[in-house]
Amino acid sequence: MFRDTFQHRFVTVFSSAGSKPLAIWDVQTKNGNSRRLTDEDIRSLVFELTGVNVATTYMVAPCAPCPSLCVKLPFLILLLKNMKKFFSFEVQILDDRQSLRRLRFSNYQSTTRIDSFSTTMPLSLVPNWNQVQLNLAEFIRRSYGTNYIETVRLQIHANVRIKRIYFCDRLYTNDETPNDLRLLPVRPNRLVQMRIQQKTAKFPSVPIESVRPTTPVENAGVPVAIENEKLTEVQCSDGTEI
Q1: Can you give the residue ranges of the CFA20 domain (predicted)?
Q2: Are 57 and 34 in contact (CB under 8 A)?
């Protein structure tokens, strides 16, 4: 598919913000669902794959009848969201022995298993959005002692939200990466933030009494001033003191 394309620095194979995000992809959903929606954390369009069975709900590239992606860049970058459910994806690679090797990554396995033509590895994801960076050439070299030639096939299984998938010739810093390929900082949901502030509002543990002014008291026509619970001497109209 990308054999006749000039592959320099970055090659994007999926973008959820495009007009046709599934142009080169086939989607299979059995007891599952696939849709494009706006993620509440990054406020951007994403593609969501959800299903009861991870194996029966997936998206695969390239779509028929194209046999291979033919991407020669060795670094695979995925911008995806951890849904806190089972999730897996696999990459099919052609090496210099003309053998097809399959790398499988999943968050529900804890050990690495290497077979003749496939390798299964655990995938650790942090909560919310992740930027997964894979050096495919290094995986092939360590697993089979061969050299990476190109990526043939890419398959993403449920359950996940995807923003972008692309290949690059090396790992770039955040400043070197174009803006549309970056994973922007997660912005807190304003409604959730307001609810948290309401729950954490502080109230005084001891009620505060307001200061009341002194109240004049009349006793048999003689005014008496009371202040701080002490009687003060006042002078009556006839000149006598009480």
Answers
A1: 1-183
A2: yes
Question: Structure tokens of 194?
Answer: 């307001």
Domain ranges of the chain: 10-172
**What is the Cβ-side half-sphere exposure of residue 184, based on CA atoms within 13 angstroms?**
11
pTM: 0.76
Helices (H), the chain: 136-144, 190-199
Residue 197 backbone zone (phi > 0: left; psi -120 to 50: alpha; other: beta): alpha
Q: Cis bond leading into 159, ω under 30°?
A: yes
What are the tens digits of pLDDT across the range 116-157? 999 999 999 999 999 999 999 999 999 999 999 999 999 999
Alpha-carbon distance of 103 to 93, in angstroms, equals 8
- Tell me how far the alpha carbon of residue 76 is from its chain's centroid: 18
List all residues 6 or more positions away from 188 whose beta carbon is below 8 Å from its beta carbon.
none
CATH class of 10-172: mainly beta
Residues 49/59, Cβ–Cβ less than 8 Å:
yes
In sequence order, what are the residues at sequence separation of 6 or more whose Cβ sits closer than 8 angstroms to the Cβ of residue 173?
Answer: none
Looking only at the bridges linking them, the beta strands covering 44-51 and 160-168 are antiparallel
SS3 230: strand
